[in-house]
Amino acid sequence: MKTKITKICCIGAGYVGGPTMAVIAKKCPHIQVTVVDLNTERIAAWNDKDVANIPIYEPGLSAIVEEARGRNLFFSTDVEKAIEEAQIIFISVNTPTKTYGKGKGKAADLKYIELCARQIAKISKDDKIVVEKSTLPVRTAEAIKSILDNTGNGVQFQILSNPEFLAEGTAVTDLLHPDRILIGGETTPEGQEAIQALVDVYSNWVPEEKILTTNVWSSELSKLTANAFLAQRISSINALSELCEKTGADVNEVAKAIGMDSRIGPKFLKASVGFGGSCFQKDILNLVYIAKSYGLDEVADYWEQVIIMNDYQKKRFSTKITQTLYNTVADKKITFFGWAFKKDTNDTRESAAIYVADDLIAEQAKIAVYDPKVSREKILADLDYLKTRSQEENTASLVSYENPYEACQESHAIAVLTEWDEFTTYDWQKIFDSMLKPAFVFDGRNILNKTDLESIGFIYQAIGS
Length: 465
Ligand code: UDX
Ligand code: UDX
Ligand code: ADP
Fold this sequence. Notes:
Elements: E1 7-11, H1 17-27, E2 32-36, H2 40-46, H3 61-68, E3 73-76, H4 79-85, E4 88-91, H5 111-123, E5 128-132, H6 140-151, E6 157-161, H7 171-176, E7 181-184, H8 189-202, E8 211-214, H9 216-247, H10 251-259, H11 280-293, H12 297-324, E9 333-337, H13 352-362, E10 366-370, H14 376-385, H15 391-397, E11 398-401, H16 404-408, E12 413-416, H17 428-434, E13 440-443, H18 450-456, E14 459-462
Parallel strand pairs: 1-2, 1-4, 2-3, 4-5, 5-6, 7-8, 9-10, 9-12, 10-11, 12-13, 13-14
Helix pairs in contact: 1-3, 5-6, 9-11, 9-12, 11-12, 12-13
The protein binds uridine-5'-diphosphate-xylopyranose (UDX) (2 copies) and adenosine-5'-diphosphate (ADP).
Pathway: Nucleotide-sugar biosynthesis; UDP-alpha-D-glucuronate biosynthesis; UDP-alpha-D-glucuronate from UDP-alpha-D-glucose: step 1/1
Organism: Flavobacterium azizsancarii
EC number: 1.1.1.22
């Protein structure tokens, strides 16, 4: 299959597909890149004349879309046409954790992937390279291949695994300057040719020594493992944060001290209210499920503990707020600074804020949220998704504000849930003056200055000190 790559299609215009294809289009002006999605609203937003309205907020992304859109970057709902024309098809649809049946709550739900595979098989009239971009459980490529080979029109398919390592909030930089590109494919000559075709796309801007090629299964498992290791570091430092609170050690000092060991390194050691995002929990649950399915109970239990610790850290934060506010938050206004799962994104999937709010509302608190990028509809939808109580009750218990100062008026406490930079620049005296006394700050991200806040009069509590 020595076709020259002139057209790429990506199925799924989400947090992964959108930014990744925008960067490929920017760096490969000779390749036409079409991103398709079933969601017409989402495609309309990607095509919005005002590039500020694209559906995903990522620093630097709108400029790239503006540069490439209409030149060699297209967003469309015509899935069939895009598949038919492309030589390489990326599958970048969502793979949420199953909410039903076998593996419920743990295994990845592959129904969207299977639908894509069937659609590709039906439409393709010439040989294609199909690339898994979504995080998928190990051996998904095998399943895709079986569907393609058995339902297709007799054309040849090569399946590659090309996991995405971008982090939200820094997606554009991560895509422009990746630590590595990982491409897994079959060891046959045809597999190697397909790998080379994808290597040739990336080598338009990524140095060859950073492009790693492996067999399919190593590539798939590497993605899960990378996320499991990253999440494990956070659960490890968070586990230590409670010990620090009990003993008088300071987790920031401990993190700095251990991070200077070059074998450990300084990154991903920030204690927090708990990790969120669409990947960490899902990928670890996935790893746990795979291990269990091979009967490897010790392996499964080892990794599951990372999730158990993270759930505990979120619970510990909400409990600390209630206990500190004299064991009752009933009818008390508590202000959340931040709802997104991390700064510089409007994504809220698995954000700790959702679970902390849910706990506090169960204690009848009134939650006031300010997040610079997350809409009120999204916040309430996140809460409703938990199905803890009725929509009406959620709507009555949570209000969101466009202005941080208004969100704090007559509030008993502020809880920092996301590390948005702007929170550190506020007029904290003004905030203090508008709150009920004593005024509490629970800093779930350790971003505020304890000494400054205490000198204003706040009672300040951080994580791990
Ligand atoms: C360790 C710490 O590294 C050191 O900083 C501390 O002061 C004392 O404890 P040590 O036990 O001497 O040092 O050796 P180390 O190199 O850390 O190895 C410990 C064990 O881990 C060895 O059995 C080694 O074979 C094993 N190991 C290490 C692995 O199995 N895999 C690895 O990747 C690294
Ligand atoms: C992650 C991986 O980093 C990325 O490589 C993969 O492709 C997708 O999953 P993402 O979830 O976008 O990316 O963000 P990340 O920066 O990893 O943060 C995940 C969560 O961990 C956030 O809630 C963040 O606030 C939290 N975190 C991160 C900490 O609590 N402490 C840290 O030190 C680092
Ligand atoms: P991710 O973070 O993995 O990118 P998102 O949920 O942001 O996940 O994006 C996945 C996108 O895939 C969604 O916009 C969804 O509408 C789209 N999608 C899911 N299944 C299909 C399909 N069969 N064809 C086209 N698009 C799909």
